[in-house]
């Protein structure tokens, strides 16, 4: 494990190859050192948080989804599409070359199927294809179900992974169906038109990633077709406003700070830590040396989601968990404060 001076649990990854996918999108093929390889086991649809040199001299954190599949034997691959005026995407596309090294947090994210055996409906727009492609490849390689992908882009030149998608359809002609939606030919995907296109597949579990207007339209279309909300999964893009690599500040005098203890089950191990009333659970775990998952530390990404088994907590902020999640006990560790003297938490 390599740690930055700020104390974040980052690992160094080597850039093995840079692949120019389109004029605006580059893929980075990455390799973890042998001693960190187990930390980069991942589920289809997850992402990496990279530590980049910031314009102001402070580290900048940027999250990029993995386009590779953990079930095909291929190396780690993230894909970065330029954003007009975007510091991180342009730095990656302009500066990185084979042989360079990057610091990254381990894979995180909950935009991933519980099972690869069911029939799936995948919808992507632009660079939103990245985690969706990971899910599609994984389902085809390790699952038994059928996959339908609707992929929206401005025009034909904007289609990322065009050759890879074509090869997948040729290799799995009876299990994969790809619909390309080109705005230059078909116009913007409206709710009504999406409903017509997706109607035959509305009963499938759906994974949607792309610009906010597209995801909103897809969800409205599927709901109008009777699809239950818990079967529609959205991956949200977000910008990190703070330095997630800063070491967490946790009160030394736990009794003076109030609170109690947390018993946390993670990766088959149980950790008992003092939990001051003013410190988020994630900060307490990291300060205690527990390698808890996280990414944004801002309540926006769900990478640190865990479940309260006993006791009560409150969240300072929550942009991702819905009422159903909260009713089932799920909380964001980066935003959770204790309300009872003892709290039991599980990450399983």
Provide the β-strand percentage band. 25-35%
**Secondary structure category:** alpha/beta
In the CATH scheme, the class of the largest domain would be Alpha Beta
Q: What's the CATH superfamily of the largest domain, by name?
A: Nucleotide-binding domain of ferredoxin-NADP reductase (FNR) module
| CATH fold field value of the largest domain | Rossmann fold
Radius of gyration: 21 Å
- Extract low-pLDDT stretches: 1-8
| Average pLDDT number | 90
The shape, in one word, is globular
CATH architecture verdict of the largest domain: 3-Layer(aba) Sandwich
Task: Output the strand order for the largest sheet.
Answer: 4-3-6-1-2-5
Number of helices: 9
Residues in helix, %: 10-25%
Number of DSSP strand runs = 18
Distance between the termini: 23 Å
- Main pleated sheet: 6 strands, antiparallel
One letter per element, helices H and strands E, the order comes to EEEEEHEEHEHEHHEHEHEEHEEHEEE
State the domain count. Answer: 3
Give structural notes.
The protein is an alpha/beta fold and 348 residues long. Helix content is 21%, strand content 32%. The protein has three domains: 11-108, Translation factors (Elongation Factor Tu (Ef-tu), domain 3, Beta Barrel); 120-235, Nucleotide-binding domain of ferredoxin-NADP reductase (FNR) module (Rossmann fold, 3-Layer(aba) Sandwich); 254-346, Ubiquitin-like (UB roll) (Roll), CATH 3.10.20.30. Helix 5 crosses helix 6 (212-224). It is globular and about 60 Å long. The two termini are 23 Å apart. Residues 262-348 form the 2Fe-2S ferredoxin-type domain. GO terms for molecular function: 2 iron, 2 sulfur cluster binding; 3-ketosteroid 9-alpha-monooxygenase activity; flavin adenine dinucleotide binding; metal ion binding.
């Amino acid at each position: 494990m390599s740690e930055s001076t700020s104390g974040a649990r980052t690992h160094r990854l080597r850039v093995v190859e840079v692949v120019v996918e389109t004029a605006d999108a580059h893929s980075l093929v990455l390799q973890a050192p042998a001693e960190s390889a187990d930390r980069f086991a991942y589920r289809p649809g997850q992402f990496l948080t990279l530590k980049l040199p910031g314009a102001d001299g402070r580290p900048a954190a940027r999250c990029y989804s993995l386009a590779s599949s953990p079930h095909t034997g291929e190396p780690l691959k993230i894909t970065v599409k330029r954003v007009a005026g975007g510091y991180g995407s342009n730095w990656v596309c302009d500066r990185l070359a084979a042989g360079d090294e990057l610091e990254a947090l381990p894979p995180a994210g909950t935009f991933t199927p519980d099972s690869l055996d069911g029939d799936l409906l995948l919808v992507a727009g632009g660079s939103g294809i990245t985690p969706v492609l990971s899910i599609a490849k994984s389902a085809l390689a390790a699952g038994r179900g059928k996959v339908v992908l609707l992929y929206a882009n401005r025009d034909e030149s904007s289609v990322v992974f065009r050759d890879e998608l074509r090869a997948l359809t040729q290799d799995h002609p009876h299990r994969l169906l790809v619909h390309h939606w080109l705005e230059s030919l078909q116009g913007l995907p409206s709710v009504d038109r999406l409903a017509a296109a997706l109607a035959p597949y509305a009963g499938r579990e759906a994974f949607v990633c792309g610009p906010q207007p597209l995801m909103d339209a897809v969800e409205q279309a599927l709901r109008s077709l009777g699809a239950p909300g818990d079967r529609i999964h959205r991956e949200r893009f977000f910008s990190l406003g703070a330095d997630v690599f800063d070491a967490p500040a946790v009160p030394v005098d736990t009794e003076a700070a109030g609170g109690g203890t947390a018993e946390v089950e993670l990766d088959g191990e149980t950790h008992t830590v003092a939990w001051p009333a003013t410190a988020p659970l994630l900060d307490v775990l990291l300060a205690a040396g527990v390698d808890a998952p996280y990414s944004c530390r801002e309540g926006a990404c769900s990478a640190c989601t865990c479940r309260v088994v006993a006791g009560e907590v409150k969240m300072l902020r929550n942009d991702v968990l819905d009422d159903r999640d909260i009713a089932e006990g799920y909380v964001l560790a980066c935003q959770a404060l204790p309300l009872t003297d003892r709290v039991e938490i599980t990450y399983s």
